[in-house]
Design a protein that fits this description.
Number of helices: 9
Structural class: mainly alpha
Helix content: 55-70%
Shape: elongated
Radius of gyration: 18 Å
Mean pLDDT: 78
Number of domains: 2
Length: 196
């Protein structure tokens, strides 16, 4: 039990990736906040083809978008169109522009999800929250969500605001994706060492 709590805390503290932001990423003018743009640039620089080729490969770009498929539901054709748009190479400026399109779309999806799970009084209480957090595609089943409620201390939710829902939803999704990656990498390493 202590390991599990440590694991959840570790995943929450190490919150960073390409398309999810802990807090709303856009300013009041609808522009990506400077610190979030910096995170995208850092992500791009960490995933270059090589130090001397200042581009991102198609495989890396697709992998990033595939990881968050549960949020944007874009198919390969859409991802390829973003990569090859204007027939230019994937440099840092294009990467920031294309990922910002996806981030903007994902942010609208959070609002749609929130609105679709409000009860008949227009509120999100604990029952609606539990249903809204289920994302079967990445293993967030109803059983898994029920286990998260005490961890996040959500026992008395009477009317959760959209911003609170958005921040919690992103944190839960990010932790689940990271958990899936860790498990996948661990199982893959076992398979490789067993196979060879």
């Amino acid at each position: 039990m202590h390991f599990y709590i440590f694991y959840v805390i570790y995943l929450t503290i190490s919150f960073s990736n390409g398309l999810l932001f802990q807090y709303p990423p856009f300013n009041e003018n609808g522009e990506l906040k400077r610190e979030n743009k910096t995170k995208l640039v850092e992500f791009f620089c960490d995933n270059l083809i090589s130090d001397w080729v200042k581009r991102m490969s198609l495989e890396t770009f697709k992998e990033l978008f595939k990881k968050f498929h549960c949020l944007h539901h874009w198919d390969d054709a859409k991802i390829l169109s973003l990569y090859y748009e204007n027939n230019t190479r994937m440099d840092v400026n294009k990467f920031v522009a294309q990922t910002t399109k996806c981030i903007s779309f994902i942010e609208t999806q959070y609002k749609s999800r929130y609105d679709s799970f409000l009860n008949h009084e227009g509120k999100m209480n604990l029952n609606e929250l539990k249903r809204a957090l289920v994302v079967d595609e990445i293993g967030l089943t109803q059983t898994a969500v029920n286990g998260l409620i005490p961890i996040y201390r959500l026992t008395d939710t009477r009317d959760m605001s959209f911003i609170d829902f958005r921040n919690l939803f992103v944190e839960v999704i990010c932790n689940q994706i990271k958990s899936n990656d860790i498990i996948y990498n661990f199982l893959n390493s076992i398979y490789i060492s067993f196979y060879f």
